[in-house]
UniProtKB/TrEMBL annotation:
Name of encoding gene: dapF
EC code: 5.1.1.7
Class of this enzyme: isomerase
Keywords recorded for this protein, A-Z: Amino-acid biosynthesis, Cytoplasm, Isomerase, Lysine biosynthesis
Family statement drawn from the similarity comment of this UniProt entry: Belongs to the diaminopimelate epimerase family.
Domain of life: Bacteria
Residues with site note (Could be important to modulate the pK values of the two catalytic cysteine residues): 158, 207
Complex formation: Homodimer.
Annotated protein name in UniProt: Diaminopimelate epimerase
PANTHER family documented for this protein: DIAMINOPIMELATE EPIMERASE, DIAMINOPIMELATE EPIMERASE, CHLOROPLASTIC
Organism this protein belongs to: Paracoccus yeei
Pfam families per UniProt: DAP_epimerase (PF01678)
A GO molecular-function descriptor: diaminopimelate epimerase activity
Residues annotated to bind substrate: 19, 52, 70, 80-81, 156, 189, 207-208, 217-218
Length: 271
């Protein structure tokens, strides 16, 4: 039973292509979760279950500010699908068709893309070793790692491998083996990419601090940036992930991501 001593913590459960989130609207309270609370809520057996958590805070020079957490309670600088989900919630709540969201990476523009889709500019990719960040100065297009991956920063670090068959990769082993590579002092997201054409790829994802996910906005952006820089695709690409499809468009003003969102339910955490 809800009491004065434990009024509970209201939350929203959302997802983009099965990449699921708990969203806390802390604009009024300013309450930030402790890492232990994040991890407890993330537990899919004893908690709510999610890939990432997003906390909405008041924004300066933006409609709101977002802080992201991985399922293990660690902070993440970016989460593209969560950004789209929160953007859709705030646009619907405020009767807007566009807004700006501040993150640790950049102030991101979001807009209604029509047909129930939401589009977010994830900002310019980080293409210098210190910004990714990496442990030392190396060629980001050809990392000195078996498999010849590419390094990209999208507000969080990424290591992208190009493979003949993405489905054949044992991601349960491959992902964690590279997430903790010493070249990445803050760990890294790991992507395996199968190029279908110059405008389409298949992507599988291991997210830092979370594991295998059905989709990831920042990983999709990083994969397209890596593929385009390698000359394997153009800059506008359809990304097929296990949860569905995202459209990524690397423009002069940033990497735009378009896809669906879902507000699944509202709840109160009393753990």
């Amino acid at each position: 039973m809800e009491t004065q001593q434990n009024p509970g913590l209201p939350f929203m459960k959302m997802h983009g292509l099965g990449n699921d989130f708990v969203v806390l609207d802390a604009r009024a309270s300013g309450r930030m979760p402790e890492p232990g609370l994040v991890a407890a809520m993330a537990d899919r057996h004893r908690g709510v279950g999610f890939d990432q958590m997003a906390v909405i805070l008041p924004g300066e020079n933006a409609d709101a500010r977002l802080v992201f957490y991985n399922a293990d309670g660690s902070v993440s600088g970016a989460c593209g699908n969560a950004t789209r989900c929160v953007a859709r919630f705030l646009m619907d709540q405020g009767g807007k068709s566009a807004l700006r969201l501040a993150t640790d990476h950049a102030v991101l523009s979001a807009e209604d893309a029509g047909r129930g889709l939401t589009r977010v500019n994830m900002g310019a990719p980080v293409l210098d070793w210190a910004g990714v960040p990496l442990a030392c100065d190396v060629d980001l297009l050809h990392l000195p790692v078996d498999g010849d991956p590419v390094a990209t920063g999208m507000g969080n670090p990424h290591m992208t491998f190009f493979v003949p068959d993405a489905a054949a990769v044992d991601l349960e082993r491959f992902g964690p083996a590279h997430e903790h590579h010493p070249l990445y002092p803050q760990r890294t997201n790991v992507e395996v990419v199968q190029v279908v054409s110059d405008s389409e790829i298949v992507l599988r994802i291991w997210e830092r601090g979370t594991g295998i996910t059905l989709a990831s906005g920042s990983c999709s952006c990083a994969a397209v940036v890596a593929a385009a820089r390698r000359g394997l695709t153009g800059r506008r690409v359809r990304v097929n992930v296990p949860g569905g499809q995202l459209e990524i468009d690397w423009r002069e003003d940033g990497v735009w991501m378009t896809g669906p969102t879902a507000h699944v339910f509202d709840g109160v955490w009393r753990g």
